[in-house]
Amino acid sequence: MLKALLVVAALAAAVAVFLVLTYVRRSFLSRSGSVAMAARLSRHMEGRGWAPGFAVYESGTLRWYRMFSLAFGPRYSLLRHDVQVSERRKPVGPEAQIFPPEVAILRCKSATGEVELAMTTSAVTGFLSWLEAAPPGAEFYSGRD
């Protein structure tokens, strides 16, 4: 009985430590602001494979991080000059059950491949403004001085 309680206590402590570290990581990564955004990590099943996360805009790059991860690197990095929105749609099928009605899904293409992002319509407005806001010649800006 005591052994079982110790195992349960150890598991609870591990979960608590994970949640605290996840919160600290997000606070550190989004100190200049972030936007809630889900990304589709797998397309094996129709409408499935979505992971919650957040995006951080830094100069000409959008960096997307998984919500529940301890990794400090982004899962996706999208360069503003390299991204094209190929499709905008509402959630359908199983997606309509996990996303609220005010969410739009964008399929984005870049040199590194395709990614689907799900975000609120106000976040879509911000994302599209960010894409269009690059000054002429900005595609040659490397982000380094």
UniProtKB/TrEMBL annotation:
Pfam families the UniProt entry points to: DUF2550
Superkingdom of source: Bacteria
Entry-linked InterPro entries: DUF2550
Protein's UniProt name: DUF2550 family protein
Organism of derivation: Glycomyces algeriensis
